[in-house]
Amino acid sequence: MARGQFITFEGLDGSGKTTQLKRLAEWLKASGHSTVTLRQPGSTALGERLRAVLLDSRSENTLGPLSPMAEMALMFADRAQAIAEVIEPALAAGSIVLCDRFTDSTEAYQGGGQGLGSERVLELHRAVCNDLRPDLTILLLPSLQNSLQRARRRNQRSLQKEGKDENRFERESDDFYARIHRAYQQIAEREPQRVVTIGDDGTENSIEAIELHIRRVVEGRILAPQMSEP
Q: Which CATH number is 5-228 given?
């Protein structure tokens, strides 16, 4: 059986990546493709516990502030477990794996936003993740201000409806997010064969238009090569 394909979605909170991942997954499944979805942090028993520590702003009331290095280490602990428990088995079974965030997020948030630098992140990735790399990364990068506004509105709704408060990062300064935005741009410039950037030209496309754009990219880079294999 041919190995599956690994597609990641990246971007600031509020960029629309989670919505687009879900839409792509529905389309792939309707088209007959075996598809597995997950999010980071999360998607394993360990990952969900780490998610509560990393994202819930109330965790600081009991644990105190996380150091940037501890934050990065926990992100990679979650990632290593997800690779072993979900990603590698699904790829070995020939599935298309869609992941909401991967190492690019750590490079952008902890490497760029927290100032740890890219090389530390990439060294950990090579050591902890066995240098597993996505076949394709969809980077949703609309304007910084629009992303932050949407993220904060979303988290307020989540807190009211579900009691979840995953806005620890959203409380950071605009300068913090500007550094993340620049880090994502640098990743895309460094790896243009892997990373497809949508929404960095100042335009705000509709959800449907972005969905169709992503489908075309996936058809051209993932599905068409699969069809041509003997």
A: 3.40.50.300
Helix, strand or coil for residue 3? coil
37: helix, coil or strand? Answer: strand
What is the three-class DSSP state of 173?
Answer: coil
CA distance 151 to 176: 15
For the chain, the domains span 5-228
- For 222-225, which contacts have Cβ atoms below 8 Å and span 24 or more sequence positions? 222/5, 222/7, 222/96, 222/135, 222/136, 223/33
Torsion of Cα atoms, 10 then 141 then 191 then 70, to 10°:
-50
First to last CA, the chain: 12
Q: What is the pLDDT of residues 140-193, one digit of tens each?
A: 998 887 777 776 676 666 556 655 555 556 566 788 989 999 999 999 999 999
- Those residues whose C-beta lies under 8 Å from the C-beta of residue 2, and which sit 6 or more positions away, are 94, 226, 229
What's this model's pTM, rounded to 2 decimal places?
A: 0.89
CB 215 within 8 A of CB 27: yes
Residue 31 CB coordination number (10 Å)? 11
